[in-house]
Amino acid sequence: MSGPVERIVVPKPNHLRRNLIILGVTALIVGSAWFAGFDLGRILLNLRKGGRLLGRMFLRPDWAYTPRIVDPLLETVKMSIVGTFWGAILAFPTAVFAANNFIKNPWIAQPLRVILNITRSIPAMVMASVFVAVFGIGAFSGVMALVIFTFGLISKLTFESIEAIDQGQVEALQAVGANKPNILRYAIVPQILPQFLSYTLYGFEINVRAAAVLGYVGAGGIGQIFEQNLAWRNFDRVGLIIIISFFVVLVIDLASSAMRRKLV
Amino acid sequence: MIQFTNVSKTYPNGVQALKGVNLTIEKGEFVAILGLSGAGKSTLLRLINQLIDTTEGEVVVNGVVVNKAAGKTLRNIRRQIGMIFQGFNIVKRMSVLANVLSGRVAYNPTWRTVLGLFPEEDKQIAYRALKRVDILEKVHTRASELSGGQQQRVAIARALAQEPLVMLADEPVASLDPVTTIQVMDYLKKINREDGITTVANLHHVDLALKYATRVVGIRAGTIVYDKPMKDIDTGNFLHEMEQVYGRRIHADEVLGDEE
Amino acid sequence: MTDRILVPKERNPLRTLYNILNYGGLAALVLWSSSGIQYLGIMQTARGTLEAILRGFILPDVAYLANWTKDGLPYAIVETVAISIAGTFASALLSIPVALLASQNIVGPRVSKLGKVIVTAVRTFPELILALIFISVVGPGAPAGILAIGIHSIGMLAKLFSEAIESMDMGVKEALDSCGATPMEVLFRAMLPEVAPEFISYTLYRFEINVRAASTLGLVGAGGIGAPLIFAIRNRAWSRVGIIMIVMVIVVTVIDLVSGRLRKKLV
């Protein structure tokens, strides 16, 4: 290229749609923060107070309190196990019926899905609170909430798995004259069992976390002790509870994740 | 322009890709590098702009030592070396213009390039580059909407926008159909001739070397086993000579052939 | 005449032992767990309460829904959604640098291991505890909820983001490196554009979860519908509980549908 170079003129691009979307999303976010009264300045000012509180909780926890929380922690774990177990047991047949490629009856599948949707839309804490009002304070209410929550979670994951199976195996069985229970046993279950177990373990991981806090509303486990100490402002004990619970959940998580990896 | 002095490269996994390579490439040459996969072609190319660093030896480009360079020095070296790849490596979700402007990043402060605030002059350079490869009309098109050949032309434009002294091409046409292959190679040759940009290209098809290069270098197991300027090559005997480089017969897919 | 073919029975003692341990162990675990939980004489009082709850759902407190003031249902729901929006967005921004620290192809194997540990640690920390801590710091109300959700969601988003980064095609990074780009330039002009749709999709997914979380956090005083809800439950105002739950399920379902559709368009 030599000589004077001419300027190239290029038509301007049309970014209207993109810019409107960006503007809209930004307005949504800023509006939300404003509506909720989020004042970054005030929060930063209070940060020092937060730091001191965290120090009281975690730098000088009340280690002597540890024996007192062993039983509640055990209760939390037990709640999770029972809740996951029954939730999974209930989930399996529900998932089978809710899948659109097995029973193939929309009058059964659709209402089931609506029910599952509802159970998953209500947070476990809310259910626990209601159950506490019904069944009283204690682990039973928590277990009920966990059962329903787990049931909803595992059902959804499982019926999605069922709908994603290799239909070829089903067809092969149909060709030899198998009925529905046969198909279930020999084509569907073998394919989805590892995933179902994996989902159950996943549900268990979530439940341990959930169970730990359900006690806050009186549904048993470590949460109750936590709430009491918080109300009494025994922050050193609060910190201890958090630390110990944290490690228990972490260990369970790691073990469960390891098992899940071996499944799928 | 490019000088390799006793260059060796051994990878951390123990593989020795290059052994004691000496190579001098003059300004304006169009060098085709041929050889089996794994012979060391990609390594050789990437040593020129330090995408890979040497284990031993020295690489000098335009009088500047490339190996062990860092920071601003490396940035300045790399901005003068354009590179295109077999997989095009175009950011699909960005516009063609944004992709080409990425070639100007080393000529602008980082805050400008991150925010996309390139000066008008850089945009003009980008437009001109796009015009050179006849794809200016797609300037605001999303890259994902382009064909493979078009994306590779955008890649060439991105390299051109750097106003480079050297152009590296790592198997630039291996993913393209025969017609587009000729098109892209024609562009590379045009740029090499018109702008005097020293071009080093790894090629999968051996006859493309004959058609476009001014010099053919053959690599086998990490050493250069063949190095002849075009005028010294007997085209009739070329395939046979390449069998020495490859250590076996040349496969059908390694020859582009004629398009009638 | 066909002879009977005899095939030895498949008897693998190790396998049998394994099965006994597995199933037996599971059964023992469940039994032991169940033993700790007392099923008190609950059914007596429960029946009456359950009936009252059912009545509350059939005849919900619609007046509460029509109450457009700060004390009404619409305000609380909007606040809940607002908390999720602000919290999820803040979390997405914060998760990007954390995800980079946890990605092997960015910071190398050793640093990324540390990054992954940090992410796991954040995930394990219950949201509720975070909310309580923030309430102690900035006082009760929605801002504490935003902070709790913002920090806790990093656990999931950073993990998903880093998975996207690690499975990214590194070619565009190489291309920009060859132009002489600085790490920031490579990040903004090559990597983020590549993974942006996945990031947005994951963020929307987390938003769906956070709407539920935000309503829970209100239970402890972090703003939103949770506080009126727990109030109503404790006071056994079942018709109010009814309307709140009905509206909540509807809102969550609608948000899920819209968000799901948006996500499908992205990937």
Helix content of chain B: 25-40%
Summarize model confidence as the mean pLDDT of chain A.
Answer: 85
- Tell me which CATH architecture of the largest domain in chain A applies here: Orthogonal Bundle
Portion of residues within helices of chain A: over 70%
Note poorly predicted spans of chain B: none
* Overall morphology of chain B: globular
Per the principal axes of the C-alpha atoms, what is the gross shape of chain A?
A: flat
CATH class of the largest domain in chain A: Mainly Alpha
Most residues in contact: chain pair:
A-C, 58 and 62 residues
Order of helices and strands of chain A: HHHHHHHHHH
Q: Give the CA-CA distance, first to last residue of chain B.
A: 38 Å
Strand content of chain B: 15-25%
Structural class of the helix and strand makeup of chain A?
Answer: mainly alpha
Q: What can be said about the biggest beta sheet of chain B?
A: 6 strands, mixed
Task: Please tell me about this protein's structure.
- The complex is a heterotrimer of chains A (about 260), B (about 260) and C (about 270).
- Chain A has two domains: about 30 residues, no CATH class; about 200 residues, MetI-like fold (Orthogonal Bundle).
- By secondary structure, chain A is mainly alpha-helical.
- In chain A, helix 9 runs antiparallel to helix 10.
- The mean pLDDT of chain A is about 85.
- Chain A is flat, with a radius of gyration of 26 Å.
- Chain A has ten helices and no strands.
- Chain B is α/β, with parallel strands linked by helices.
- In chain B, strands 6-7-8-3-9-10 form a six-stranded mixed sheet, sandwiched between helices. Chain B has a four-stranded antiparallel sheet with strand order 2-1-4-5, with helices on one face.
- In chain B, strand 4 and strand 5 form a beta hairpin.
- In chain B, helix 5 crosses helix 6 and helix 6 packs parallel to helix 7.
- Chain B is globular, with a radius of gyration of 18 Å.
- The N and C termini of chain B lie far apart (about 40 Å).
- Chain C has about 270 residues and is mainly alpha-helical.
- Chain C has a single domain, classed as MetI-like (MetI-like fold, Orthogonal Bundle).
- Chain C is about 80% helix and about 0% strand.
- In chain C, helix 7 packs across helix 9 and helix 9 runs antiparallel to helix 11.
- Chain C is flat and about 65 Å long.
- At the A-C interface, helix 1, helix 2, helix 3, helix 4 and helix 5 of A face helix 1, helix 2, helix 4, helix 5 and helix 6 of C.
